[in-house]
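Give me structure tokens for this 722-residue protein.
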Amino acid sequence: MRGGVQVGLILPGGLDPEGGRSIPAIEALVERLAVHAAVRAFATAVPASGRTSCFRGIPVTPVGGWPPGRGLATVLREHRRRRFDLFHAFWAGTPGLIASAAGLLTGRPAVLHLAGGELAALRDIGYGAGLSWPRRLAVRLSLAGASAVTAASTGLAEAAARAGVVVHLLPLGVDRGRWRPTGPRPRPEGRPARLVTVASLNPVKDHDTLLQAVRDLLDRGYVVELDVVGVDTMRGQVQHRAETLGLDRVVTFHGPLPNAALPPVMQQADLLVVSSRHEAGPVVLFEAGMLGVPTVGTRVGCVADWAPDAALTVPERDAGALASAIGTLLDDDVRRVRIGAAARRRATAQDADWTAQHVEMLYRRMVAPGSRHASRRIRRQVVGRPVPVFICGTARSGTTLMLRLFDDHPDLVVLPGETYFHRLFFDRGWRRWMLHLAELAPLPSLHRMLGRLPPAVPRRRHWTRRLAEWSEAFPGDGAPALDLDPVVTRHLRTRDPWGCFLDLYERRRPGRLAGASAVVEKTPSNERFVPLLERLFAGTPRYVHLIRDPRDVVASWVTLRSGPQADRWDLIAHVCYVWSRSNLAGRTSAGWVKGRYRWLRYEDLVASPTGVMGEVARWLGVAEVETLARASVWGKPVESNSSYGSPPEPGAVEPRSVGRYRDILTQAEVQMIEGRLGAQMTAWGYPLTAGPLSVGGPGNRTPMARLKSRVVARAERVCGGG
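Here you go.
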């Protein structure tokens, strides 16, 4: 992306390879972003000097802090020299204000990453931007002007969500080159337990509670030593407190260490201890995790996210509970090693490369042509979320099989059941009739115009009823029934129905959305609503369209229904119409969203699931994993499915149902299908096996049936050429 995507990065500290006021996790992220993007950085915590330095090929311009006017002018001047495609700010406040204002004035999107006390308000220690109205206003303006908001931890994301902001969880991973994954290792016998804490000495880190916990451990008979790493902002108060508690021989204050000197200290530790009253991360949690060092800490930031399998948490300001938790792991080394191993898996899974990949994904979505011209409200709802992937195709065409093949992929979230998301917009009012008119006339231009009109906002009762019906698709795992009113109220305010489904999914499957690359949804005939979906998702969705031999589709429908032959003719005629409508809508939509629409033949999928799904994975930009060739539901292989027969082993995909129409349909019925759809079938590689039957024959007994036959005839002309 270098030379293509121009990124204006606004952050507080300068990028300094020697340390300085930089943050190693941000340095690692920026270094990786610069590989594919043209990054220019602006430092707000460094006094404006007019001089531009260089960090590993990235220009860094000091712009000063408050007031942000001078920094904004510098960014706009640089934009006039070489235009930015987007702005990215770390921390609300001055960086966020500059990025949001620059985005508003230039018409470019802005990303805001929350990574501090922007939403905190701890009055007893004077910490947090929420304590004064000027800082609260600055944060509010930063959030309001951002096109996408990311946060380092769930707690911070939930605090932003309470303010009505859609937030994407994005922890800042660490560099494996600096923190090489090792351990965990058993604790050597015969030496004191080594504890370490890495945090600036200030009130929010609450070293008093930590020191009291160490005193309690000594009183209980434990032999421990504590290493304290961090710059002292309290003029020796913490050191004096350690002396008062009689800890001067067991606590070592190292002061601020260079980045290269910290890994050896961490490697010698048995436990990392976090006693903070507020954290966005902390990054040190990931650093310790890389080395297999488990963490005991308060329920803040990512420490709470990692508990209970990869960290042990206690309430804030509770020295006794902190001492007990530390003692628990010192007494049970097997558990300590197990938690350390889980922490290592977490840290390596979300390292600096992972963070950079997800940031680049945000960049790609924001500079996409559709999202560039989308409204700021829609862009905020779309950019900060996984890409939606819609499975298209008629019912009985293999869409359920495709959904189940995606089910167990680690990078994908698969929504259970069928959301019928589009019904919230088209099932009532004149838009529904316009859709039918556009399809029956047929008028593709009218169909596309529906996507340009402001979508109808569904009523509360429609949202609640649809969510209640969809929630039944989740397995009965004993979870209590959810109150849907708060979910609907929150997203009704922001006019975000899609957020309702994601919110409900997150409540039933906590943490699964975090880090997902895409959300997969399957509702029959999604291809009919591509114009609407393009508008609602700002030109970001991807579409996978399943096409299946219409004779097998008809056979599948016929086996589900029984009745007199006249009704059977009508059913066949209707399925032929639906199949042609799907084919025609897909062909038209594929021309609108070039590069984001993929066709798949059901027969090819069941014949070679590994090869076909591998190609789909590469197209979606996700990993090719073995589970893509295995059908499952909630990660468990399914026993059988009507779309692909009863496999000899759970999850196996076999082409048993291909050509089964020969055992179900009569010769006349096959002739009717081939007579109506012959050109399209030939274009898709389905050989004709019977002589044609007149289109005006059985199944065209009503004016509506004859009107549908006109749509079929148009599809034959338009799609018959391939």
